[in-house]
Amino acid sequence: MLRIAISTVILLTAACGEAPLDAEQESYDAAVVERVREANDAEPPLAEVVPETIGYPDMEANDLLGLACSYAPGTSMGVRVIARETDAYMKIDGELMRFAADPGSRELPANSRTLYNSRQYALRLAIDDIVAEGEIEDTSYEGTLWLYDRWDRVVYTGTGTAVCGV
To answer: Domain residues for 7?
Structure first.
């Protein structure tokens, strides 16, 4: 009987000693998990993007000629975005990047859209007032474009001429 009583006391003492250690370990683990979660959710520094001019050789090589809106921000005549019915193109770091049209977005002239998405970026386009009516089929508008990174931060914006037509 005495053996059972001593064994019970030893087990109870050991169990009491482990409970605070388990609670402390759980608290520590929860704090570590929270720090890892915060580190993973932190956004990287903002990296501004400067799109390059899409030249005629790029247009020809990628079959970008035809019905579209071409955006040239500022007073530049260098096209930075070509927006079509199903896709849009922008040249970033020497690479022509394709954006898929968001079919639920508002339609703009030349069957282009207001929203386009790629794996790394989102492109939003807007067209304001008509600047000039073209003699053939092209019409010039005041246009604005915004480029967003995957954290929905604006990494480029430009306002200028948007020429829509063939």
So the answer is: 1-42
